[in-house]
Amino acid sequence: MFMRMKMKRGTALTLVLLGATALNGLSNGYAMAAQPSPLDETAAVQANFTPVGDFTNLVKRVTPAVVSIDVHLKLNPADSQDSSGDQSQGGMPQIPGFPPGFPFGGMPGFQAQPQVVEAKGSGFIIASSGIVVTNNHVVKDAKTVSVELSDGRKYPAKILGTDPKTDLAVLKIDAGHPLPYVELGDSAGVEPGEWVVAMGNPFGLGGTVTAGIVSALGRDIGDGPYDKFIQIDAPINEGNSGGPLFNQHGQVIGINTAILTPTGGSVGIGFAIPSDMIKRVTGQLIANGKVVRGYLGVAAQEISPQVAQAMGLGTGDPAHDGALVAAVSAGSPAAKAGLQPGDVITKVDGAVVANPNDLADDIANVVPGHNTAISFIRDGKAHEISVPVEVMPANPDAGFQQGGSGQTGQAATQGDLGLTLAPLTPDLRSQLNLPGNAAGAVVMAVKPNSLADQAGLQQGDLLVGVGPQNVTSPSDVAADVEAARKSGAKAVALRIIRQGQALFVGIALNKSSGASQN
User: Fold this and answer.
1) CA atoms of 450 and 392, how far apart (whole Å)
2) Which of 451, 490, 478, 466 shows the shortest CA–CA distance to 310?
């Protein structure tokens, strides 16, 4: 189970990917759902009903296609505790005051054996041949996987393919006869306020049904580059991962994946991967066992009001202003086509790009080898170019430009921006774990409550550009900031590298601001 902490109004909220519920040390028995009525096993299971709030017919019709997934993980003794020292699922407790692993780990010549942990998740059948869809994090690192149908029949499963970037996985079971299955619906037509039904295997209970409404669309929860989750208020919990989210016609419009919670349990904020994404990804996993995506070669960010002011870009509303190019990968299709940092991509093949997630999703869906039309804004003028999209490399971030070349310039002291800059020396390059082609000015200190501090600059940031222009030294930064001030600019955009990520930071100027040199 993966977690990410978020704060809101002083309350700690945990973002939980609804990983398989660990059952190690617990009884494997649990209440089974009632047997469903017989189905036509040669056609997709659908349920059409009218009464709002009565989901009886839907549940009866789709239940045979909803499955429980049993996963066996083999863990090494060293993995039985996490980095904080907490006992992991299935791990043995540590006796205070004794060496790790005592008494067994402390006996000469004794080697602790790997432990087998059983966990449960959810899934659903999408083809009568036994094709099952679930989350990648449900079957990740699995030693063995089995699928249990609603009638109790259990089959070993083969993993056909997984895609960690979208957290999807496809399994195959062989029942020896056609199986009931459900249809993937059209998530593009989903609207907030409509009724949905979630089914799955929370806490290993199996056959559980909950209902609610769609709360929001297109949610980015920071889980991956292609986040466009459907937010729902139907209660889902651990073990629900991989289970289907149905519309009122019995079609799957999402796969239940994560919850936002202060308690570890459902508080009515759940997230489901939309079915349109499931269709694209599972189709490739079934055919090829992997997903091939298009690659443009840009790092993009949302346009904050501060960056918009600094660069003279629109309104600074990230919902409408497009994707700001923060870096261009060397030798990439974008670099060959002439895209530059500071460009704002607004459309891909005529489809509006509202934010970086739109751009990532649109480019990923382009078949490699095909040209795509990229519309962008540069210096306030609209442009359009045709770019031949390539296959996404294994490490798409490796080729990003890290600024210009050279390591010249003197250190800069705190000016009115509140920055202390230094040249990028070999020692600093090593300390910051920067690649050999990195160049720029290193932020050595940020004065508290200064303009730089208010803009979010941090010690250790590598400043590689002022606006679209590369800088190679603190003196370059000072000169470019002073030029912006003299031109009457009220703000300037500094391009930085932070922990391998490129982004623009907008910083306000005053009459005498600048980074003064020694």
Assistant:
1) 41
2) 490
Residue 512 φ then ψ, to 5° = -120, 15
H-state helical runs in 33-127: 56-62
Is 370 labeled as catalytic in the residue annotation? Answer: no
Rounded to 5 degrees, φ, ψ at 451 are: -60, -40
241 in active site: yes
> Beta strands 44-45 and 181-182: pairing type?
parallel
Catalytic residue among 187, 241, 275, 332: 241
The answer to whether the peptide bond before residue 103 is cis (omega within 30 degrees of 0) is: yes
**Contact criterion met (CB below 8 Å) for 236 and 200:** yes
Is the pLDDT higher at 75 or at 411?
Answer: 75
334 vs 399: CA distance, rounded Å: 12
Q: Residue 50 in 3-state DSSP?
A: coil
Question: What domains can be seen in the chain, in order of their start residue?
Answer: 17-76+114-290 (2.40.10.120), 294-391 (2.30.42.10), 419-508 (2.30.42.10)
pLDDT in tens, 341-363: 889 999 999 999 988 888 998 99
**141/384 Cα distance (integer angstroms):** 45
Catalytic residue (one of 137, 163, 362, 461): 137
pTM of the prediction?
A: 0.69
Is 167 noted as a catalytic residue in this protein? yes
Radius of gyration (C-alpha) of the chain in whole angstroms: 27
Q: Which of 70, 163, 167, 227 is catalytic?
A: 167
